[in-house]
Structure formats: structure tokens, C-alpha cells
Write a structure and sequence with these properties.
Structural class: alpha/beta
Number of strands: 8
Radius of gyration: 28 Å
CATH architecture of the largest domain: 3-Layer(aba) Sandwich
Helix content: 40-55%
Length: about 425
């Protein structure tokens, strides 16, 4: 009796090893490893936590499971824990595991895309969002990136409110927290069900997953499963997929496999319209638009401050009052660091990447362009320019400026771009 039990256990370990060898590690770890294995007569019994897992494994991994089981002279049966094998196809195991996301404060959001003030540079990404919200699209996942305050979260809020079918929206930090909680509470399969049982899945601020290996593996599998099921996926981040730090190349490639679109910071006209929509007088909005940084959060704060002042004091806000009220917000003389950050936004690169050790071609070129612009637009010494651009030495700055001078002679587009940057910095 004991020998038979030992032999059965050995066979199960051999079967698991054969499955692990035939499948990629992420799929095996996420779906097969958590199953309970058993052998009953000529059947290999795989017991799942819930019906969704049983259905998904049966539809996606059936061929591999049958092939490995046949090597041991067995047939495969997939059932749900607590449900007989013959009844597994109609099982309802809602009482096996339950999951509900942690309650968060509800924030009033926009009703539709009309709330997003669009400039010409953002027309493409806005059209893509509208197309996705209208139904299933071929370019999933839609990866939206841009600097803080450019409108990424507003766009995904609009998609959530307008999209057809069930929408699941989480922030990157919330996904990490909920995944960890489901592991602790032993409701991981129910958490998987919750994320996959939707028509549109939205994750805001993907960069929050950086460096969290187990969470990244789970999210990668989620994206692949949703895409295979024809569902819509929307991701946002502060940089493009290939500039994300803390993610391996496979994940960066997965994020970039759909449609990648950038959102530019609000320009002067967009800031003016945003202020007027918030109730700021036209003449005040016209005067303030060029003196507020291109950050949607900051613009919203300015509008709220003016509106609150008018309500509390019972009088309208003219430009003199606005200047006194917003003395800590309105831009004064541009500092070198502010110039570099502004150029980062316009060139579509991350400030941390430019001032860090990033060596990818786009970052290096942007850094060299900024050094050349600072030399022409300011009175900074080459040593000071190097310090502003990430503590580069004098020789690096000299080399960067010489490289840009060479490129300007053969690349008219780059030359015009640098001239525009110089004009913006002066």
C-alpha cells in the first residue's frame, strides 16, 4: 500500500516536470503549478480553485496537458475543487473563493471626451481613445505616455465612463496592493477572475510595477490572456515602453506590441481654454496662460484658487488680484533646470533619463541637444551646463556641442528644432 502511494507521488512529480518543460515558465507558474494533481484509474485529475481557471486551462492548455498525460498512458480531466469531475462543466463555485477590490474614495470624473481640451499634437491619441471606447480594436494594448499633468489620467477616465461593456480600472499602485492582498488572503484565482472578466482593462501608471518581479509576471500574463480573448487594454506611463526602468525587455516589448501614443503637455491655447472652462474671466485667462507651467494639475489648482477666492470674497478676480493671489505659482525668470525639464517635455524624454546614466540613442541625442541649446540661450559656462545635465564633465559637454554642430549642417529638421528650443529658452 505504501509502495503504491510512493509510486503515485513519483508519477505526479514526473508529470509536473514534463509539463514545466513543455510550457513557458510564466504560464506554468500562473496556471498549472497552483492546481492539485491526482491520478484516479486511467485519468489524470487536475483540480482548479474555481470555474474560470478550469475553463481557461481547458481551452488554452488542453493540447499540452493531453500530450504529456498520454506519455504516461493517462487521460486528462479538469474539475473544480469540491465539484465532481462529471459535473465540472456546469459547476458554479462562487463560494470557493470570493474577491472584491479594496474600497477607495470615489472622485468625481468627467462624463466624456469633451472634457479633454485637445490640441493638434494630441488629436491622434484622442482619436485612438475614442475608437477603443466605441468597441473592440486591433491595436490593443493602447499604451499612452507623457509627462505628469499632460492628461493621461483624464483620457483613461473618459474611456472608463464611455466604454461599452464592463470596464476594470486600477492604478499601478492599486494593482500591486490588490495582487499582494489576494496572495495573503489566498484569493489569487478570484483576483485573476476579477481582472479578466471585463471588456476593457485599464492600468494607470504602469511604472508603479517597476522592480516587483512577481507582480510583473502576473500582469504580463494578464495582458496576454486579455489580448488573446480579444479584450481592450489601456496602459499609461510617464515614459515610452523602451524607456521604462525596472522592467525586463520582454515586458517592454509586450507593452509596445499594440499602439504607442504620446500626450504632449498643454500649450498656451489649451491652458487658456482650461482656465475659461473653470470660470476664469477671459482677459485673466489670456494673461495667465503664458505664465503657468504646462501641467494640467497646476492649471486645475490655479483655476480652483481663483474660483474659491471669488466665492469667499464675493468679488471678481482681475489681473492685479490674480498676480497677487498666484505669486507663488506664476513663472518668473526661467532657471536652467526649468529649461531642461521644459525641453524634456518637448523632446518626449524623461528628465530622470537625461540626467541619469541612460545611454539609449534617443536619450543621448536629447541630452546633447539640450547642452547645445543651453550654450546658445544662457550665459552658463560649459562646466555649469554639464552640472545641470546630470553632472557631466567639461569634456563631455564640449563633445556633445561639437556633435550637434555637425548634425545641424546635414539635418535641417534638427537644426530648426534646436533654433525653436533656443527661442523658447530665451
Amino acid at each position: 500500500m505504501q509502495a503504491a502511494a510512493t509510486m503515485k507521488k513519483t508519477n505526479l512529480e514526473q508529470i509536473k516536470g514534463a509539463l514545466a518543460a513543455k510550457m513557458d515558465s510564466a504560464s506554468f507558474t500562473s496556471w498549472i503549478a497552483p492546481l492539485q494533481f491526482d491520478i484516479c484509474g486511467d485519468d489524470l485529475i487536475l483540480i482548479a480553485q474555481n470555474q474560470f481557471s478550469a475553463d481557461f486551462i481547458g481551452s488554452v492548455h488542453q493540447n499540452v496537458l493531453s500530450s504529456v498525460a498520454a506519455q504516461f498512458g493517462l487521460n486528462v480531466s479538469i474539475c473544480v475543487r469540491g465539484v465532481a469531475v462529471k459535473d465540472a462543466t456546469v459547476a458554479n463555485d462562487n463560494n470557493v473563493q470570493t474577491y472584491s477590490p479594496a474600497k477607495t474614495a470615489q472622485v468625481a470624473t468627467s462624463n466624456g471626451f469633451d472634457s479633454f481640451v485637445c490640441c493638434e499634437e494630441n488629436a491622434f491619441v484622442l482619436s485612438a481613445c475614442k475608437k477603443l471606447a466605441a468597441g473592440s480594436v486591433s491595436f490593443s494594448p493602447l499604451f499612452i505616455y507623457g509627462a505628469a499633468g499632460c492628461g493621461k489620467s483624464l483620457l483613461v477616465d473618459c474611456i472608463e465612463n464611455v466604454a461599452l461593456g464592463r470596464t476594470v480600472k486600477m492604478s499601478g499602485g492599486q494593482f500591486v496592493s490588490e495582487f499582494t492582498r489576494s496572495l495573503h488572503d489566498r484569493t489569487i484565482f478570484a483576483f485573476k477572475d476579477f481582472c479578466r472578466n471585463c471588456d476593457t482593462f485599464i492600468l494607470d501608471d504602469v511604472q508603479a510595477l517597476a522592480g516587483k518581479r512577481a507582480t510583473c509576471e502576473e500582469f504580463a500574463q494578464l495582458v496576454m490572456d486579455l489580448r488573446a480573448a480579444g479584450k481592450n487594454i489601456v496602459l499609461t506611463a510617464n515614459v515610452a515602453p523602451n524607456n521604462l526602468n525596472g522592467f525586463d525587455r520582454r515586458l517592454q516589448s509586450l507593452f509596445a506590441s499594440g499602439l504607442v501614443a504620446d500626450v504632449t503637455a498643454p500649450n498656451t491655447n489649451v491652458k487658456r481654454v482650461m482656465l475659461m472652462r473653470a470660470g476664469v474671466a477671459t482677459d485673466v485667462a489670456d494673461a495667465l496662460a503664458s505664465r503657468i507651467a504646462g501641467d494640467g494639475h497646476l492649471i486645475g489648482g490655479v483655476a480652483m484658487k481663483i474660483k474659491t477666492y471669488a466665492e469667499l470674497m464675493g468679488k471678481s478676480v482681475n489681473m492685479d488680484v490674480a498676480q497677487h493671489l498666484l505669486a507663488d505659482t506664476l513663472q518668473k525668470a526661467k532657471t536652467p533646470i526649468a529649461m531642461v525639464k521644459s525641453m524634456c517635455e518637448k523632446l518626449g524624454v524623461a528628465y530622470d533619463a537625461v540626467c541619469g546614466k541612460g545611454r539609449c540613442r534617443a536619450v543621448v541625442l536629447a541630452r546633447q541637444m539640450m547642452m547645445a541649446v543651453l550654450k546658445e540661450a544662457t550665459n552658463l559656462s560649459l562646466t555649469e551646463i554639464g552640472r545641470v545635465c546630470g553632472d557631466r564633465d567639461h569634456a563631455t559637454v564640449v563633445y556633445a556641442i561639437s556633435q550637434i554642430e555637425k548634425l545641424k549642417k546635414s539635418d535641417l529638421v534638427l537644426s530648426a528644432q534646436i533654433n525653436q528650443l533656443i527661442a523658447d529658452c530665451k
